MFS transporter (Streptomyces tropicalis), 431 residues
Amino acid sequence: MAHAQVRDVPRTTKAPARAPQPSPLPAPAGAPEPPRTPPTFRAVLRHRYCSRLLIASVTGRLSLGMVPVALILAAQADGHSLASASLLAALYGIAPALGLPLLGRLADLRGLLLPCYLGAALVAVALGTLAVAGTAHLPLAAGCVALAGAGCPPLEGGLRSLWHAVLPDDAHVRTAYTLDSSTQEIVYVTGPALAIAMATWLSPAAALALAAAVTVVGSLAFTTAPPARAWRAAPGRRERLGVLRPPAMRPLLLSLVFLGATVGALDVAGIAVAERQDASWLAGALPAAFSAAGLFGGVLFARFQPTTAPRPRHLMLLGVAYAACWLPLLAPLPAPAILALALLPGALFVPLLTVASLTVTALAPPGTSTEAVGWMSSAIRLGLAGGTALAGPLSGHFAVPLMAAAGCALLLTARTARTARTAPAPAATPV
């Protein structure tokens, strides 16, 4: 605007000649222009193979939500106590924390086909044995449960590695990460409901068999897609620590353990509050409301997320806001109010998980993207198990998820402060 006003004033002296400026380089012929607004979920799914890969990945991961419930029902049907049945379910929750990073590293080394086929075969054999032999012999059942958990195919890590191959730019990839994080809520809502329905209609053994079947079907549909068959990790130097080598990665993964603990503690808190207030409906409604809010939060985040890659301060702000959303739940409130307030942290869970996922893959050394997602999933699953274990002795008080969320926020804040201190200072602008 100031230049326009200067040009309107009559000149009394000749203006000095401007130095010639280099003409801007033309954009490459095939390069897509970055979108001015974030792409929508529909824009991502319109690209070839995206819908198939997402549906196949979610189908193959449904067993993660089905097996814990099916195990408890099967163990109780075989005469075991609830404590023994819960230990089997906890073992299944922890086992993928050991298997997913190993299968992810194998995928980065050999491609996606071998680890997905190997994992699906292990899950099918282990769950098939449980469906036939039952859980009467606890050592055999525990071995099958551990094998089924450790053999979970790396479908989540594989999908996130493939987004860069099937989408045109980073903006679409960021939206795809939000979409994937949102669909994880479907796994942990639909999976238990499907297991309960199958166990009620037929038997708990049928629920275990169905969990094995969906794993195999999802893995086959995923790995037979041309992008999955052709994908190879970017070349890079392999080191012993792998994904854990960058110093910023370890505190970030530890913060995800605390993030997972909030969800694990919430499940116990829902049962405890339902018993205290004689509102049995709250035990299932509270996790369902949290997950539904996560889906809604993911949709909003995809619509209003930054058009550039997230920065450390975005992760810190989301972590602090997530922790603050647990504070109102400490008040003595009736069941409907608790259900409504649980929507607040639920709505921020998927955006926080999405930004953390993007940060994990950005920090991962070249050629370790699938292993990086495996470590991230392991951290969250360890947190889920830990949150459940801690919330029980503390009577399911909401202080447990609050403290876990606060720990997550503190780690993210410390990481952001450290990044700011170690970042190079900007060059001084000449006057």
In short: The chain has 17 helices and no strands. The mean pLDDT is 81. The radius of gyration is 25 Å.
